Amino acid sequence: MTKGIILSGGWGTRLRPLTCTLPKGLIPVVNKPVIERQILLLKSAGVEEIVLAVSVMSDVIKNYFNDGKKLGVKIHYTDERHPLGTAGAIKLAEKFLKDDNFFMLNGDVIINFDFNEMVKAHKKYGGIGLIASKIVDDPSRYGVLIVEEGSQKILKFLEKSEYHPPGENYGPTLINAGVYLLEPEIFKYIEPEKKLSIEVGVFPKLIKEESMFYYPISGVWKDIGNPEELLEGNILLMNDIISNFKSQNGNLIHKNLDVEGKLKIHPPVTIGENVVIRKDCEIGPNVIIGDNVYIGNNVEIKDAVIYNEAYISRDVKIEKAIISDNCLIHDGAKLIGNNDNLILLSSYVEVLEKVNLIAPSNSSITVCHHEIVKEYTIKDKI
Q: What range(s) does the Nucleotidyl transferase domain occupy (predicted)?
């Protein structure tokens, strides 16, 4: 029976301040933690046993998932007391994974494709490993695959620092999508308690032995390495879910939404459970609102993600922003980002009445957890 391991121990430094109070793996994506969505995808492919490789805020992740029973799977945990790299992390879990092949996932990727098809491809091609791949327009931040079409063999695996196209002109390129299907023989190539990257220290050896193949995936794939990509990934996945549900109105709205008076919704919009929206509000497009959120009169929100338990008072405007859980936005505040730079509030932030947070052209505005924003003045840097 195929198993799974999700690497969920990173600091999420580039996602700060969102990851100051929440481990990267629990960052909400369309109102579910990113690794919960990965677990459900694994479950849909018949995976019943999953290892979460944790380190940073491991207690928070363990308290959320426990033994996995609420999701219908069995979850084991491994704790990295010091960084071991991607290969070292799975070596720690060898006792759970040694009896059959297993999926290995990076826990910071938004994905939505059929894992069953990847299992079928692995059976067809054989080998020790199968790498999910995706074509992206700018491969400069990813590992690149040089492949033999037809046989699906990987000829070379290039880390991002090794790939230099002629004239540095990056174009659509096949990259490593951070999802692998591996045979337990992989453990023979990994020394215990040694820091090692599987992409650098193991895959090149397997490629020389002609034991690595690739599987081009369709469907949603988005790395959430930074807040801008996190917002884009939320919107991308929301659109995909809506299209699969064939929603007639283009939205995902919980049936117990409490609306008072006039409300304009511009699809696509997702609204969670126990949300209250007062009169004369305008929501959307591209808005995801979590559970137990209150929104006062005459509020405008677009291109934004609002986490659970937020309270947004009247006459507030929010655009190009990610608002973490339990934030309080007072009357008349404006939180306006732009296409390149967002407004990012960590948990329990309070923005006082009529404060304007307007992102400049060269940097996002970030507010750390439990801060009270009384005023904000910023000028573009030269």
A: 3-234
Q: What is the CATH number of the domain that holds 309?
A: 2.160.10.10
CA nearest neighbour of 183 among 122, 109, 256, 265: 122
Closest CA to 312 of 300, 330, 298: 330
User: If you ran DSSP here, which 8-state letter would residue 349 be given?
Assistant: -
Same domain, 255 and 188: no
Q: In this structure, what CATH number is given to the domain that contains residue 144?
A: 3.90.550.10
Q: Three-state secondary structure along 251-309?
A: CEECCCCEECCCEEECCCEEECCCCEECCCEEECCCEEECCCCEECCCCEEEEEEECCC
Q: In this predicted model, what pLDDT tens digit does every residue of 125-151 receive, in sequence order?
A: 999 999 999 988 888 778 888 888 778
Contact between 83 and 91 under an 8 Å Cβ cutoff? The reply is no
- Tell me: do 60 and 206 sit in the same domain: yes
What three-state secondary structure class fits 365? strand
**Residues contacting 216, CB < 8 A, separation 6+:** 132, 133, 134, 135, 174
Start-to-end CA distance of the chain, whole Å, equals 58
Buried b (16+ CB within 10 A) or exposed e, 139-174: beebbbbebeeeebbbeebbeeeebeeeeeeeeebb
The number of distinct structural domains making up the chain is 2
Q: Low-confidence residues of the chain, pLDDT below 50?
A: 379-382
Question: pTM of the predicted model, to two decimals?
Answer: 0.91
Residues 90 and 219 reside in one and the same domain: yes
Determine contact, residues 3/74, Cβ cutoff 8 Å. no
Instruction: Name the residues annotated as catalytic.
Output: 160
